[in-house]
Amino acid sequence: MSRAVLSLGANLGDRANALRTALTALKDDGVLVARSTLYETPPWGPVEQPPYLNAIAVVRGDRDAGGWLARAQELEEAAGRTREVRWGARTLDVDVVTVTRDDGAPVISDDPALTLPHPRAHERAFVLVPWATLDPTAVLPGRGRVPDLVAALDPADVAAVVRWDHLH
Ligand SMILES: Nc1ncnc2c1ncn2[C@@H]1O[C@H](COP(=O)(O)OP(=O)(O)OP(=O)(O)O)[C@@H](O)[C@H]1O
Ligand SMILES: Nc1nc2c(c(=O)[nH]1)N=C(CO)CN2
């Protein structure tokens, strides 16, 4: 058994449907512990593309880190994700942010096929803001407390992450 924090993002097609379908699938798996609301976020990175909807899911179940990545990739494929440009637009992207064993130890890996914690999570407002709101006690191993990482971001980047559900 382990616990994982997953980051879900979509910026093509029916974005909310893609996120809700993936979250429902995790619930149906019996692994969903908690999920954030949906947030609209400006695209991060060098590629010009439409805004994203993002969410965070906390899951716990009988999988190891590779098992969570495999499930994440199945969810992407179920949403019709095609492989395109790195950091480019997609119907659904599911990243594994952290994995924690039941004894509390974080899984640390520099394998390019599964790097943990996710090497760019600490600089992504679209990950940190929903995560800190969902779990103010969360820690990103090697980086610190998630609310402190939010406080270290550019305030304009934090303000640009906007709750979406209650607007729609
Ligand atoms: N923590 C991780 N979560 C998800 N995929 C990972 C992780 N670490 C490494 N990978 C690898 O990254 C590849 C996914 O690349 P992808 O094209 O989705 O990157 P991206 O989502 O554009 O960029 P980013 O990883 O910065 O979010 C996968 O094939 C996977 O093996
Ligand atoms: N706001 C936001 N920007 C991104 C996202 C994402 O999920 N949200 N995913 C990306 C894929 O690497 C690249 N940029």
UniProtKB/TrEMBL annotation:
<comment type="pathway">
    <text>Cofactor biosynthesis; tetrahydrofolate biosynthesis; 2-amino-4-hydroxy-6-hydroxymethyl-7,8-dihydropteridine diphosphate from 7,8-dihydroneopterin triphosphate: step 4/4.</text>
</comment>
<keyword id="KW-0808">Transferase</keyword>
<keyword id="KW-0067">ATP-binding</keyword>
<dbReference type="GO" id="GO:0003848">
    <property type="term" value="F:2-amino-4-hydroxy-6-hydroxymethyldihydropteridine diphosphokinase activity"/>
</dbReference>
<protein>
    <recommendedName>
        <fullName>2-amino-4-hydroxy-6-hydroxymethyldihydropteridine diphosphokinase</fullName>
        <ecNumber>2.7.6.3</ecNumber>
    </recommendedName>
</protein>
<keyword id="KW-0418">Kinase</keyword>
<dbReference type="InterPro" id="IPR000550">
    <property type="entry name" value="Hppk"/>
</dbReference>
<keyword id="KW-0289">Folate biosynthesis</keyword>
<dbReference type="Pfam" id="PF01288">
    <property type="entry name" value="HPPK"/>
</dbReference>
<feature type="domain" description="7,8-dihydro-6-hydroxymethylpterin-pyrophosphokinase">
    <location>
        <begin position="86"/>
        <end position="97"/>
    </location>
</feature>
<dbReference type="InterPro" id="IPR035907">
    <property type="entry name" value="Hppk_sf"/>
</dbReference>
<keyword id="KW-0547">Nucleotide-binding</keyword>
